[in-house]
Amino acid sequence: MEAAWENVSPELKPLAGSRSFPSVRYSACAVAYAGQLVVTHGYFYNHAIHHPAWQSDAWTFDTATKNWQKVHEGERAGAPSARYSTSCVVWDDALWMYGGDDGGHKRSMFNYVFGAHFSEMWRMDLRTFQWRKVNYAAGAVPPKRALHAACVIGSAMYVYGGLELSDTWRFDFPTRKWQLLAAPLDAKDPNHPNAIEHPAHPGPPPPPAARRDHAPRARADRPPRAAFPTLPELPELTYVYVAHATGRPTARPQGRRGRQLFLRFRRGAGERNALLRCC
Q1: What's the pTM value of the predicted model, to 2 decimals?
Q2: How large is the greatest C-alpha to C-alpha distance in the chain, in angstroms?
Q3: For residue range 27-61, what is the model confidence (pLDDT) as tens digits?
Q4: CB 3.0–4.6 Å: which of 34, 56, 172, 191 could bond 82 by disulfide?
Q5: In this structure, are strands 149-153 and 156-162 parallel, antiparallel, or unpaired?
């Protein structure tokens, strides 16, 4: 049996959205919760009116009824200001949104400001759809970032990388405390991944170099690994360079430039993983 794409919601017009469905948007925040897809924030350029369209509203898509529902009006109703390229995870019946980039649109709507990143975190209660800013415990916090990756393992969120970043952080939800697990790599280090020709380099490979817009996946069933001596040996973390596909989709969605989707599907008696690239 091959992996296959299914179109569960056809493209709707107008692209700017309506009262019954959201606008198009990219680099939005999306999580799965209780049979629903929860989507918030993001960005698109509205060519119809020649204007940037920064988003801060929130919607749910019911996977059973295939219907959209608006659950939050956005910034004007207390949501975080409009932004994209955040990370979003679910823990304790809440969506946790961290970091992101707003292009400096508050002060320069039509001239994109590079590096307008955030270091703040927001929590949306997925039972009431109310937002609240998270206050960190005393101590070190990560630098501002966007286009990073995050995943939840146990009662903590692990954050890696982002635009021009290669550090790894752990955020403990109960205590609200950050912990640096792996400092940024020095590009001048001879062991830096960009200076190594794999697989000829002897010994264990180093951790990955700085990257953006990558996909995380947590696996709690993996034994401890010492593959990366510069990283802590955590039984719940696995760093992956390449994932080999074991199946191919029979159809692929169009127009998703440069995106990758990590799927889990069953074949025979065992579970396989496939990394599928759209377009």
Answers
A1: 0.74
A2: 59
A3: 999 999 999 999 999 999 999 999 999 999 999 99
A4: 56
A5: antiparallel
